Amino acid sequence: MKIALVHDWLNNLGGAERVLIELHKIFPTAPIYVLFYNKKFVREFLPEAEIRISSLQKIPFITKLYKYLFFLMPSAVESFDLSNFDIVISSSVIFAKGLVLKPKTKHICYCYSPTRFLWDRHSENSNQGRLAGLSRHLLRIWDRQASDRVDEFVAISKTVQARIKKYYGKESRLIYPPTVLNAMGPVAPRLPLSPFYLIVSRLFPHKNIDVAIDAFNKLGYELIVIGDGPAKKDLKKIASKNIKILGFKTDDEIVEYYRNCKAFIMPQEEDFGLTPLEAMSFGKPVLALQKGGALETMVEGVTGEFFDDPIPEALADGIRRLNENYLNYSPLIIQKWAEKFSRERFRTEVIQLTNSGQ
User: Fold this and answer.
1) Which domains, ranges and CATH numbers included, belong to the chain?
2) What are the CA-CA distances from residue 348 to residues 10, 22, 281 (Å)?
């Protein structure tokens, strides 16, 4: 079979890009089609891949201006010529699902979520003016029509399965993403009394990092936040001395923070959530908001604790319960649970998926 991979763009390293890298390892000879890419990103993370680009790459500063050029992207993704391939796997954040393919080519969409800002976060953007509202409306029409071109949807979680059904009216297969950063061997049978709690996340307002900072400001416990994003400056302004916002760190550095933290904090709702599972692979308990993908990737009282509402008081109460139960967590059991989401499992399920397409 001739297989191609399609991704929206390659600009920064996030969960979707980590999954694409794993798909490339499974299908190393498959070309990767993208709307545009950052050359530094490709050199670092996909140096051996054959990258094929759309005409959007010719636009000066496209990697910085792309958020203002969404109206060009539907036609750009539809322009890809994939007629020579038997199977196309789109790793779709927004646009990659909109490919126009010949009947003989099977389109499998690995869907991270129906486009959030068009659907379940639509009301959050309703005050941005009539032109922006009209643009979202037209994109929503295109997005719904594009979903009809997909032969098989694959969801990253049951949460996303429900959204695919609600917004696209489609059934989907479930294949959980793989954890990439993980302990390379068994962990110690007892949790060390480490001094700091850890967050690894992109720093956007909807990630609720400010909620965690407010809670830790009052608790006084040491919190380390790793990640970058537009909310970084504002978060630094409200953080007390017990909170360190470190910005970007390499994977090797992040691994050491996972290894040495007391527990991991996930204050936001995620469609799946790779970082809590990465922490679990090191045997560390997690405190997570009781919504979204965390409901599928955590076992309360065994791999960590939940808190119900994204407010500082609820998160602080979760920290209290986590600390009370801390000596009862088994790092070995937590690590064993995280193995359910391994690279090996992902590889097996993806190969089974493509074989079923023959």
Assistant:
1) 3-178+342-355 (3.40.50), 196-341 (3.40.50.2000)
2) 25, 12, 20
